[in-house]
């Protein structure tokens, strides 16, 4: 048997001929990554402040993560949820340690985690309606939110660019204004089962829920017997300097969706469900073939180990202060181009006054990869272990691009 090798064929030809055209992506082929740096097939290096959309929490190929995945890959990779495995139990224990008393279900992506929360809301509604199905099923979400591309989550995502072409959608979703508690209160009726929001809206321009708003939603849920469901798929797993972004507000969720950073690049998603709702899912009511494999859980356990051993929550909190200050200074330096800087920790948005596309390209040409977000916002998502020096370097690259375009 010959040994496998890394594929080096012409990527452009392969994509043109064989890959579905659902992404509008630049002609950039990445072949290697180490820490916050990636290299393209021409040998150029880039500071990767996309982290693959907040996924590569430890940067690329962290040695501890690689060792954990290699070790598990040679031991046992997949059994499906037909059986138990120590890694899944241990990862659930660790997540409960962060989230509080409750239980965990594992899946493979953010969208799947959000679907599970939507199903949880339906079960809560059925219980609320005395066991009658279809009587209490409505979910209130936020305008400009994002909850994935499957039918449930897409129906919870009131954006034309996401929904167009796919109607009819799942019924029962309505939408309040972010940070306007009264607009949510006005939507509650006897058929409402849950409120479901991102703690920080990631896809639509990095817009955080205020503390007051989150505490108000908690109150509304308590008063009306609704579940408070928080989508922490992007803002969770240390990205804001707390393990979950809602911890900044001191609010309690009934259930949480998480995914992106959890596996550090290995696909894994999860929901945590607090004690009050954890018994809603009974055997046979939900499931997935791949969710929580021994390998995926080994990857996630390695991420949690590194976050704890390298004290990355404290690092994000400390290092993000000067970085955000330096970015914010750009608003004054280049007011014609930079409208605002928003975010928390290493989930940051630089809002420009006009179209961001030429800026994203110019940043790439100067060696900085960033993720476009909605509302003319350039999203910066550095790995959680990014050094102060690399954060400063990102500001210099952005400043150089602004100066060149001024
Ligand atoms: C990315 C994201 C999702 C969807 O996750 P996928 O892994 O892409 O399916 C859902 N909610 C939020 C807040 C996200 O940022």
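Sequence proposed for the structure above (406 residues):
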């Amino acid at each position: 048997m010959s040994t496998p090798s890394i594929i080096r064929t012409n990527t452009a030809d392969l994509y043109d001929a064989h890959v579905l055209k659902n992404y509008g992506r630049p002609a950039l082929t990445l072949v290697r990554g180490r820490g916050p740096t990636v290299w393209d097939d021409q040998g150029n290096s880039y500071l990767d402040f996309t982290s693959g959309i907040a996924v590569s929490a430890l940067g690329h190929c962290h040695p501890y993560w690689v060792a954990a995945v290699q070790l598990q890959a040679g031991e046992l990779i997949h059994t499906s949820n037909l059986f138990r495995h120590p890694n899944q139990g241990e990862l659930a224990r660790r997540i409960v340690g962060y989230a509080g008393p409750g239980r965990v279900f594992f899946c493979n992506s953010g969208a799947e985690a959000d679907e599970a929360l939507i199903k949880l809301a339906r079960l809560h509604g059925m219980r609320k309606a005395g066991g009658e199905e279809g009587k209490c099923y409505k979910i209130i979400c936020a305008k400009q939110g994002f909850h994935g591309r499957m039918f449930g989550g897409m129906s919870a995502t009131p954006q034309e660019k996401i929904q167009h072409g796919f109607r009819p959608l799942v019924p029962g979703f309505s939408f309040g204004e972010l940070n306007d508690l009264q607009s949510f209160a006005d939507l509650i009726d006897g058929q409402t089962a849950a409120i479901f929001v991102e703690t920080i809206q990631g896809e639509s321009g990095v817009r955080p829920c205020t503390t007051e708003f989150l505490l108000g939603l908690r109150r509304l849920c308590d008063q009306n017997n609704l579940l408070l469901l928080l989508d922490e798929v992007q803002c969770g797993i240390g990205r804001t300097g707390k393990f979950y972004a809602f911890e900044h507000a001191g609010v309690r969720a009934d259930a949480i969706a998480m995914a992106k950073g959890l596996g550090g690049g290995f696909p894994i998603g999860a929901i945590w469900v607090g004690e009050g709702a954890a018994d809603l899912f009974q055997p046979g009511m939900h499931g997935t073939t791949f969710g929580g494999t021994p390998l995926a859980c080994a990857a996630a356990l390695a991420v949690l180990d590194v976050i704890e051993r390298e004290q990355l929550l404290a690092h994000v909190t400390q290092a993000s202060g000067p970085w955000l200050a330096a970015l914010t200074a750009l608003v004054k330096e280049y007011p014609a181009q930079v409208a605002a800087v928003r975010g928390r920790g290493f989930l940051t948005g630089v809002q420009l006054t006009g179209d961001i596309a030429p800026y994203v390209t110019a940043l790439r040409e100067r060696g900085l990869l960033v993720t476009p977000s909605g509302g003319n916002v350039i999203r910066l998502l550095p790995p959680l272990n990014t050094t102060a020096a690399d954060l400063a370097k990102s500001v210099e690259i952005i400043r150089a691009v602004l100066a060149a375009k001024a």
